[in-house]
Amino acid sequence: AIQMTQSPSSLSASVGDRVTITCRASQGIRNDLGWYQQKPGKAPKLLIYAASSLQSGVPSRFSGSGSGTDFTLTISSLQPEDFATYYCLQDYNSYTFGQGTKLEIK
Amino acid sequence: QVQLVQSGAEVKKPGASVKVSCKASGYTFTGYYMHWVRQAPGQGLEWMGWINPNSGGTNYAQKFQGRVTMTRDTSISTAYMELSRLRSDDTAVYYCARDLGIKSSGWPDYWGQGTLVTVSS
Fold it and tell me: What residues of chain B lie within 8 A of the CB of A45, using their CB?
Protein backbone atom coordinates (compact mmCIF):
# COMPACT_ATOMS: atom_id res chain seq x y z
CA ALA A 1 0.00 0.00 0.00
CA ILE A 2 1.15 3.52 -0.76
CA GLN A 3 2.05 5.56 2.32
CA MET A 4 1.64 9.33 2.36
CA THR A 5 3.80 11.30 4.76
CA GLN A 6 2.90 14.91 5.45
CA SER A 7 5.16 17.46 7.04
CA PRO A 8 5.05 19.25 9.29
CA SER A 9 2.37 17.66 11.47
CA SER A 10 1.64 21.07 12.97
CA LEU A 11 2.56 24.60 12.08
CA SER A 12 2.14 28.00 13.71
CA ALA A 13 1.91 31.02 11.45
CA SER A 14 0.56 34.55 11.31
CA VAL A 15 -1.99 36.22 9.06
CA GLY A 16 -0.22 37.30 5.89
CA ASP A 17 2.47 34.61 6.09
CA ARG A 18 3.35 32.34 3.20
CA VAL A 19 2.98 28.70 4.24
CA THR A 20 4.05 25.47 2.57
CA ILE A 21 2.92 21.96 3.49
CA THR A 22 4.63 18.92 2.01
CA CYS A 23 3.36 15.46 1.19
CA ARG A 24 5.68 12.62 0.18
CA ALA A 25 4.48 9.36 -1.35
CA SER A 26 6.21 6.04 -0.69
CA GLN A 27 6.28 5.41 -4.45
CA GLY A 28 5.59 7.44 -7.56
CA ILE A 29 1.97 8.48 -7.99
CA ARG A 30 2.25 10.67 -11.12
CA ASN A 31 0.08 13.69 -10.29
CA ASP A 32 -2.76 11.71 -8.68
CA LEU A 33 -2.93 13.85 -5.57
CA GLY A 34 -5.49 16.11 -3.96
CA TRP A 35 -5.41 18.52 -1.03
CA TYR A 36 -8.19 19.05 1.50
CA GLN A 37 -8.93 21.58 4.21
CA GLN A 38 -10.93 20.55 7.28
CA LYS A 39 -12.22 22.78 10.04
CA PRO A 40 -13.33 21.40 13.42
CA GLY A 41 -16.69 19.66 13.27
CA LYS A 42 -16.96 20.09 9.49
CA ALA A 43 -16.53 17.86 6.47
CA PRO A 44 -13.33 18.21 4.45
CA LYS A 45 -13.24 20.60 1.50
CA LEU A 46 -11.38 19.83 -1.72
CA LEU A 47 -8.88 22.58 -2.55
CA ILE A 48 -6.58 21.11 -5.19
CA TYR A 49 -6.86 18.06 -7.44
CA ALA A 50 -4.44 16.49 -9.91
CA ALA A 51 -1.62 18.00 -7.82
CA SER A 52 -1.98 21.54 -9.14
CA SER A 53 -5.55 22.18 -10.37
CA LEU A 54 -7.49 24.64 -8.24
CA GLN A 55 -11.00 23.46 -7.43
CA SER A 56 -13.77 25.82 -8.44
CA GLY A 57 -14.49 28.48 -5.85
CA VAL A 58 -11.21 28.06 -3.98
CA PRO A 59 -9.23 31.31 -3.52
CA SER A 60 -6.20 31.73 -5.73
CA ARG A 61 -3.89 32.12 -2.71
CA PHE A 62 -3.97 28.30 -2.58
CA SER A 63 -1.71 26.48 -5.02
CA GLY A 64 -0.33 22.98 -5.43
CA SER A 65 2.71 21.59 -7.16
CA GLY A 66 4.67 18.40 -7.57
CA SER A 67 4.69 15.11 -9.39
CA GLY A 68 5.97 11.63 -8.72
CA THR A 69 6.68 11.41 -5.00
CA ASP A 70 6.94 14.97 -3.70
CA PHE A 71 4.10 17.46 -3.50
CA THR A 72 3.48 20.83 -1.89
CA LEU A 73 0.48 22.91 -0.93
CA THR A 74 1.24 26.61 -0.66
CA ILE A 75 -0.90 29.35 0.84
CA SER A 76 0.55 32.60 -0.43
CA SER A 77 -0.86 34.95 2.21
CA LEU A 78 -2.63 33.39 5.17
CA GLN A 79 -6.09 34.65 5.98
CA PRO A 80 -7.88 34.12 9.32
CA GLU A 81 -10.23 31.57 7.76
CA ASP A 82 -7.29 29.40 6.60
CA PHE A 83 -6.44 28.12 10.07
CA ALA A 84 -7.51 24.49 9.82
CA THR A 85 -6.13 21.00 9.27
CA TYR A 86 -4.90 20.06 5.81
CA TYR A 87 -4.72 16.57 4.30
CA CYS A 88 -3.28 15.18 1.09
CA LEU A 89 -4.95 12.23 -0.66
CA GLN A 90 -3.46 9.98 -3.32
CA ASP A 91 -5.70 8.07 -5.71
CA TYR A 92 -3.01 6.48 -7.89
CA ASN A 93 -3.41 3.04 -6.30
CA SER A 94 -6.44 2.75 -4.04
CA TYR A 95 -6.60 5.82 -1.81
CA THR A 96 -4.44 6.99 1.07
CA PHE A 97 -4.68 10.17 3.12
CA GLY A 98 -1.72 11.82 4.71
CA GLN A 99 -1.84 12.09 8.49
CA GLY A 100 -2.74 15.79 8.39
CA THR A 101 -1.11 19.15 9.14
CA LYS A 102 -2.71 21.37 11.75
CA LEU A 103 -2.21 25.04 10.92
CA GLU A 104 -2.54 27.23 13.99
CA ILE A 105 -2.41 30.93 14.66
CA LYS A 106 0.90 32.18 16.06
CA GLN B 1 -27.14 22.47 -5.84
CA VAL B 2 -25.49 19.20 -4.89
CA GLN B 3 -26.60 17.92 -1.50
CA LEU B 4 -25.78 14.74 0.37
CA VAL B 5 -27.90 14.09 3.46
CA GLN B 6 -26.85 11.25 5.73
CA SER B 7 -28.80 9.29 8.29
CA GLY B 8 -28.61 10.06 11.97
CA ALA B 9 -26.22 9.02 14.70
CA GLU B 10 -26.09 5.38 15.78
CA VAL B 11 -25.03 3.57 18.93
CA LYS B 12 -24.13 -0.08 18.46
CA LYS B 13 -22.76 -2.89 20.57
CA PRO B 14 -19.54 -4.69 19.65
CA GLY B 15 -20.20 -7.42 17.11
CA ALA B 16 -23.27 -5.71 15.65
CA SER B 17 -23.65 -4.12 12.20
CA VAL B 18 -24.50 -0.58 11.18
CA LYS B 19 -25.96 0.73 7.93
CA VAL B 20 -25.56 4.39 7.06
CA SER B 21 -27.52 6.02 4.25
CA CYS B 22 -26.63 8.96 2.05
CA LYS B 23 -29.40 10.60 0.01
CA ALA B 24 -28.19 12.61 -2.98
CA SER B 25 -29.92 15.47 -4.73
CA GLY B 26 -29.09 18.22 -7.18
CA TYR B 27 -27.29 16.06 -9.74
CA THR B 28 -27.59 12.81 -11.69
CA PHE B 29 -26.99 10.18 -9.02
CA THR B 30 -25.75 7.53 -11.45
CA GLY B 31 -23.23 9.85 -13.03
CA TYR B 32 -20.68 10.07 -10.21
CA TYR B 33 -18.94 7.55 -7.97
CA MET B 34 -19.70 7.79 -4.26
CA HIS B 35 -16.93 7.46 -1.69
CA TRP B 36 -17.11 6.61 2.00
CA VAL B 37 -14.54 8.08 4.39
CA ARG B 38 -14.38 7.85 8.15
CA GLN B 39 -12.72 9.83 10.92
CA ALA B 40 -12.21 8.51 14.44
CA PRO B 41 -12.42 11.10 17.25
CA GLY B 42 -9.41 13.41 17.10
CA GLN B 43 -7.85 11.38 14.29
CA GLY B 44 -7.25 11.75 10.57
CA LEU B 45 -9.28 10.74 7.55
CA GLU B 46 -9.51 7.15 6.36
CA TRP B 47 -10.84 6.12 2.96
CA MET B 48 -13.12 3.07 3.08
CA GLY B 49 -14.17 2.55 -0.52
CA TRP B 50 -16.39 3.68 -3.35
CA ILE B 51 -19.43 2.53 -5.24
CA ASN B 52 -20.29 3.21 -8.85
CA PRO B 53 -24.00 4.02 -8.58
CA ASN B 54 -24.53 3.27 -12.24
CA SER B 55 -23.25 -0.31 -12.27
CA GLY B 56 -23.22 -1.09 -8.56
CA GLY B 57 -19.55 -1.95 -8.83
CA THR B 58 -17.48 -1.40 -5.70
CA ASN B 59 -13.88 -0.93 -4.64
CA TYR B 60 -13.09 -1.39 -0.96
CA ALA B 61 -9.97 -0.53 0.98
CA GLN B 62 -8.13 -3.72 1.85
CA LYS B 63 -8.51 -3.00 5.56
CA PHE B 64 -12.32 -3.25 5.32
CA GLN B 65 -12.73 -6.07 2.83
CA GLY B 66 -15.00 -8.73 4.23
CA ARG B 67 -16.60 -6.30 6.70
CA VAL B 68 -17.95 -3.50 4.53
CA THR B 69 -20.71 -3.57 1.93
CA MET B 70 -21.62 -0.57 -0.20
CA THR B 71 -24.91 -0.59 -2.08
CA ARG B 72 -27.23 1.87 -3.74
CA ASP B 73 -30.88 2.34 -4.63
CA THR B 74 -31.04 4.38 -7.81
CA SER B 75 -34.82 4.82 -7.54
CA ILE B 76 -34.33 7.05 -4.51
CA SER B 77 -30.79 8.33 -5.26
CA THR B 78 -29.42 6.85 -2.07
CA ALA B 79 -26.15 5.13 -1.28
CA TYR B 80 -25.58 2.88 1.70
CA MET B 81 -22.56 1.73 3.66
CA GLU B 82 -22.90 -1.25 5.97
CA LEU B 83 -20.10 -2.20 8.35
CA SER B 84 -20.33 -5.49 10.21
CA ARG B 85 -18.64 -7.08 13.22
CA LEU B 86 -18.23 -3.69 14.82
CA ARG B 87 -15.43 -3.05 17.30
CA SER B 88 -14.82 -0.16 19.64
CA ASP B 89 -12.21 1.27 17.26
CA ASP B 90 -14.91 1.62 14.58
CA THR B 91 -16.27 4.53 16.59
CA ALA B 92 -16.02 7.39 14.13
CA VAL B 93 -17.81 9.91 11.98
CA TYR B 94 -18.65 8.30 8.65
CA TYR B 95 -18.90 10.52 5.58
CA CYS B 96 -20.24 9.90 2.12
CA ALA B 97 -18.69 12.07 -0.57
CA ARG B 98 -19.46 12.40 -4.25
CA ASP B 99 -16.58 12.04 -6.66
CA LEU B 100 -15.31 15.13 -8.47
CA GLY B 101 -16.10 13.41 -11.76
CA ILE B 102 -13.16 14.44 -13.90
CA LYS B 103 -12.09 10.80 -14.28
CA SER B 104 -13.82 7.50 -13.56
CA SER B 105 -12.85 7.47 -9.90
CA GLY B 106 -10.98 10.42 -8.54
CA TRP B 107 -11.18 12.73 -5.57
CA PRO B 108 -14.13 13.04 -3.19
CA ASP B 109 -15.62 16.48 -3.66
CA TYR B 110 -19.11 17.14 -2.26
CA TRP B 111 -19.46 15.70 1.24
CA GLY B 112 -22.36 14.71 3.45
CA GLN B 113 -22.70 16.11 6.95
CA GLY B 114 -21.29 12.97 8.55
CA THR B 115 -22.86 10.27 10.73
CA LEU B 116 -21.44 9.50 14.15
CA VAL B 117 -21.33 5.79 14.87
CA THR B 118 -20.49 4.91 18.45
CA VAL B 119 -19.58 1.33 19.32
CA SER B 120 -19.88 0.64 23.01
CA SER B 121 -20.96 -2.17 25.27
Answer: 111
